[in-house]
Amino acid sequence: MLHTSDWHLGRSFHRIGLLQAQRAFIDHLVSAVHEHEADVVLVSGDVYDRAVPPLAAVELFDEALHRLADAGVPTVMISGNHDSPRRLGVGAGLIERAGIHLRTDPAGCGSPVLLSDAHGDVAFYGLPYLEPALVREELGAPRGGHQAVLRAAMDRVRADLAARPAGTRSVVLAHAFVAGGAGSDSERDITVGGVASVSPETFDGVDYAALGHLHGCQTITERVRYSGSPLAYSFSEADHRKTMWLVDLGAGGALTAERLDCPVPRPLARIRGRLDELLGDPRLEKHEQAWVEATLTDPHRPEEPMARLARRFPHVVSLVLEPDRAPEDPHASYAQRLRGRTDHQIAGDFVAHVRGGRGPDDAESTVLTGAIDAVRLAAALGEEAR
């Protein structure tokens, strides 16, 4: 199994188009299918970067589907929180005839794609991104939240699997934030009620969970893994090694996995210091051809900092000003004071600020949580309707 996710076709990097780099990844994916004689390709959501992708991204996706179909290797693909399930799922029944299995409807969680090898059947269950407020009733979840709806979906998976012949192996594709995973700056927040993560135990009972959403390749447990995105989409991913998982699922569910490196269009580098230091430090020579994010710590903004940096680092694309000041300095930037805080915490801080230090009580916190989640849901529905 070749496990990948989070292609984000159509996304740019600091206004730099990445379509050619994404096309190079598709070339690499198809080559890997042939080189490693893959039996199936798994794509765990966020195929596109937004619900209404640009035409060039749609064309690249169409090209990818044709090439995977021509390779004669089945592909199982789910929608992620960036995708429009309805748009991505258009023509799914017809496309399935070519071996491309699109799973975008939550109602189909318990209906697997059945494939076989020398050891018997393997059931592939596609769990598209589950927005709790939209799917709770349909899945019969007892309450809202990611944990509840994903558990309800997995209950359907386990029920279907229990009715199949003994020895049937199982794989789940899911798009979620699983506890223990490390996020980055380029993933869209899916927090509901202040809680975004679900427990790894949610996937108990299946042989492999192929996860999408987090952009770093990581192993949550031996059988629960993120492939990560094939390209870096923020400087927080500067230290990521971008890969796919090549997973061998043997008889009885025996599992081995190895990482296959993805092509890197240009390395990323984060450099920090005063402008004169960055321009003169010989240790930074290795970053001169990288995409660079420069954080300047000069007490006052230097003159023409971007132009001066570009003379040494021609691919500098991001400039951050963080003057060396004491943390309590009233001139500390708004972004610095909010760094690492959730929407719910920021709203609570505001309440405390306007009430002389008294933050929201439990009832008020519930109201704030409901209001923030309602805004998130309205935004998600609005994007889907566009």
Structure description:
With 386 residues, the chain is an alpha/beta fold. The protein folds into two domains: 2-261, 4-Layer Sandwich (Purple Acid Phosphatase, chain A, domain 2), CATH 3.60.21; 268-324, no CATH class. The protein is 32% helix and 23% strand. The protein contains eleven helices and 19 strands. A six-stranded mixed beta sheet has the order 6-5-4-1-15-16. It has a six-stranded mixed beta sheet with strand order 7-8-9-12-14-13, covered by helices on one side. The longest helix is centred in the last third of the chain and has 24 residues, at 362-385. It is globular, with a radius of gyration of 23 Å. The mean pLDDT is 92. InterPro entries: Calcineurin-like_PHP (IPR004843), DNA_Repair-Maintenance_Comp (IPR050535), Metallo-depent_PP-like (IPR029052), Mre11_N (IPR041796), SbcD (IPR004593), SbcD_C (IPR026843). One of its GO terms (molecular function) is exonuclease activity. Pfam families: Metallophos, SbcD_C.
Order of helices and strands: EEEHEHEHHEEEHHEEEEEEEEEHEHEHHH
What distance separates the N and C termini? 35 Å
- The percentage of residues in β strands lies in 15-25%
Task: Compute the number of strand runs.
Answer: 19
Low-confidence stretches: none
Secondary structure layout:
Blueprint: E1 2-4, E2 12-13, E3 16-17, H1 19-35, E4 41-44, H2 55-70, E5 75-78, H3 85-88, H4 92-96, E6 100-103, E7 113-117, E8 120-127, H5 132-139, H6 146-162, E9 169-175, E10 177-178, E11 197-198, E12 208-212, E13 218-221, E14 224-226, E15 243-249, E16 255-261, E17 268-273, H7 275-280, E18 291-296, H8 305-312, E19 316-321, H9 334-338, H10 343-354, H11 362-385
Parallel strand pairs: 1-4, 4-5, 5-6, 8-9, 9-12, 10-11, 12-14, 17-18, 18-19
Antiparallel strand pairs: 1-15, 2-3, 7-8, 13-14, 15-16
Helix pairs in contact: 1-2, 5-6, 10-11
